[in-house]
Amino acid sequence: KSGVSVELTSLGHHLARLPVAPRLGKILVLSTVFRCVEPCLTIAASLSERSVFSASYEHRAAMQQAKASLGAKDRSDHIASVNAFDRWTEIATRDGSAAARDYAHKYWLSEPTLRAITGLREQYRRLLASAGLITNITESSMADGEI
Prior knowledge:
Residues 2-82 form the Helicase-associated domain. The chain has helices spanning 10-16, 22-33, 37-47, 60-69, 77-95, 97-106, 111-130. By secondary structure, the chain is an all-alpha fold.
């Protein structure tokens, strides 16, 4: 009431249409701008769940080594999570659930968390489509949204 007018930025308008936490919304919206939707769906979903990497205390060193081999050696847990998820999905599709389970065991991955991430990725994909930020929710290369 002080006469100050406040308006949302373009990003703010898009975030207002997504029923997710602002930090997740920013990842999702900006993924369409920078055309990296697929890995960012995984990152956003990973931030909403427990870590995909899971080991008891006595196996932490082995888990950290597995994580490093998937990208964490570059100081990025997000890249390691994306690589782990992508490879697990690829193996499950190509070789079946038993092979995917073996891969998860070898790299200290939590299959319940990976399955939860799969579901969240699809929810986030549908949100982006309903907000008009991506055009086709079935294509894997749908980073063609325009803001």
